[in-house]
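Readers of this paper often ask what the protein records in our data store actually look like. An entry from our holdings is shown next, in its original layout:
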Amino acid sequence: MHMFKLGKHALLATAITIALSTPAHAVTDAEWSALKDEIQKMKAAYESRISELETRVKSAESKASAAEDKAVKVETRAAQAEQPKSTTSRFNPDVSLILQGKYAHMDDVDERHLTGFMQGGHDHGGERGFSLDHTELSLSANVDQIFRGYANFAIVDEEIEVEEAWFQTLGLGKGFSLKGGRFLSALGYQNEQHPHAWDFADNNLAYKALFGEGYGQDGLQLKWLAPTDLFIEPFVEIGRGAAFPGTDRNRNGAGAVAAGVHMGGDVGTSNSWRAGVSHLRTKASEREFEGHDPADVEVVGDFTGKSKTWLADFVWKWAPNGNTRTNNFKFAAEYFRRDESGTLNCDDADLADPSACTGALSGAYKSDQSGMYAQAVYQFMPQWRAGYRYDKLWRGDADFNGADIGGMIASLGDYDPSRHSLMLDWSPSEFSRVRLQYSKDKSMDGQSENQWFVQYIHSLGAHGAHKF
């Protein structure tokens, strides 16, 4: 606009200059009048053009503003289209299916057990020949901005078991997180891992003796991640306590309490570690068991009392500069100690076949048992790993009515199970693995067994990263 105003003054100056630049002569009134008229016409013409240009500029600016508003509306609609209208209008969890099976070459043993130890829980596997070892279906997703959910179902032949089904808070603040429902306890190291994440084809003897497979909790878990450079994560759990070594007692309150702390960190750019201690306290009411007396006659019984378990775990990992693709190494070890005290009942399994427990014996029972495993797995080239595991259990003291229980129940006699295992596996991708394993098993008194396993593990769908 300022340019147009300056143009008017320039036009007048130009006209005067032209007039003054003409040869000097007498200018009549008529000539001055004609010059003024000409100047007025020129001025009117330029003002008309300037007005027309101003109108065009205003029109262009208006159109540009309208186009910009329209673009903003289109972007807003596009952004709204990408967002879910409500948390209930979409079904969008991550779904994963684990296919896991194996071939097992083992001796023909009627009743496999760990001599010297009462066993419970569930332990997938143990069948000879081909078997569908352990199929898992899992679903996980954020429920909303506050919670996320996860469910894992174990499918074995015609049985479907809910292994986990829990919610967990998101961003509770101050490093705290709360989990509720059914979940694998944070006890130890391996306990939170599902079978497809194990480094060997079967469970270690320590976990078989302690939990059957792993300890699951129906209840609440609170974890706190300390705001320190060193990884420090204490936890506490309260739950129903229905899983072995406890039993479901149909009561209000908590039937089991677990607590512990895990710590860890990096050593340089190639090494990392984690260590922890944890404790489980629960009770059992008429927890059933089966066994054999010294004459190999079947007996049955139950235990009522307190069970206390302590666990210590340690893990060390190495990968050159943190790159695990070509080479990496992992060492893991756990040690447990379990004390139980209460009342034990013992009777014949078959009335027609009397045993050392004939007459439904009952008396005080007290045991002090322990065990451990240590394993090392080395990836010596891309896709290929080799590993070794050593299992050892110490039966310790197990007294019934003031005497060693082995004199009455031979399957709980004074024997320390052990086992050596070697494995080789091939993983063509992160979604599949094929494994060969050999074990020298001495978990049963008088039985030294050579065991061979061929296992496959395939993952379909989105599957979350495994824990450290």
Remarks:
- The CA atoms of residues 176 and 320 lie 33 Å apart.
- The longest strand covers residues 271-292.
